[in-house]
Amino acid sequence: MKEISNAKTDTPRSDATREKLLAAALDVFGRYGFDGASTRKLADAAGVNLQAIPYYFGGKEGLYIATAEYLAGVVAGHVAEIRHRVGRHLAELDEANMPLNASQARLFLTEIVETMVVLFVSRESEAWARFIIREQLEPTAAFERVYAGIMGPMINMGRRLIGAILKDDPASENVRLRSLSFIGSLLVFRMANAAVLAQMEWDHIGEEQIAKLQAHARNLVAVLEPAKGEPE
């Protein structure tokens, strides 16, 4: 897939049109994939003129890449506060050449998972999941945007915290695997939403269910310990 420049002079009207296209494209590309999402389908979903796609994005390819960047930005916005606060603390420790305390790492990780589990079960994240799953199966340049924009940095932060809890190097294979497994235990509530509802015998996920999921997420952090044979 070739990349196309989408630079345009923005006005309030053009900003609104681009936003409509990006929001609609996230849903349409997620449902039908790149090949199945025609420009007509994309324009109709956004409620804009068909010529808006080549005008603002250079074509469908440019819109697809811009949609991935838009997705990364939307998700990043939801976790910006905790991400910046934890990142600032870690940077201060690095500057002082001090290690991250395991207790503080647990507190930070608990805050993060409480935020993420609510995000994962939100209606908004349905479109995100469909788009990301397609890119996980057949990665394109769009996946690089999502990974570099939000997934990679958040996973790396999680590795840093989990490494401190396990008293192991965050760059070690052990911590990488433990971190991916830990993240997977939270992603299941989005990626396997139907199975979660069936197993839990819930007909929806409301405030009561979210409170239970957050408590479960806190427990996942609480039981994180080095496994037998791992460094302590």
Automatic annotation (TrEMBL):
Keywords: DNA-binding, Transcription, Transcription regulation. SUPFAM superfamilies: Homeodomain-like, Tetracyclin repressor-like, C-terminal domain. Residues 38-57 bind DNA. It comes from the Bacteria. Residues 15-75 form the HTH tetR-type domain. Pfam families: CecR_C, TetR_N. One of its GO terms (molecular function) is transcription cis-regulatory region binding. InterPro entries: Homeodomain-like_sf (IPR009057), HTH-type_TetR-like_transc_reg (IPR050109), HTH_TetR (IPR001647), Tet_transcr_reg_TetR-rel_C_sf (IPR036271), Tscrpt_reg_YbiH_C (IPR015292). PANTHER family: HTH-TYPE TRANSCRIPTIONAL REGULATOR BETI, HTH-TYPE TRANSCRIPTIONAL REGULATOR RUTR. This is TetR family transcriptional regulator. It comes from Rhizobium sullae (Rhizobium hedysari). The lineage of its organism: Bacteria, Pseudomonadati, Pseudomonadota, Alphaproteobacteria, Hyphomicrobiales.
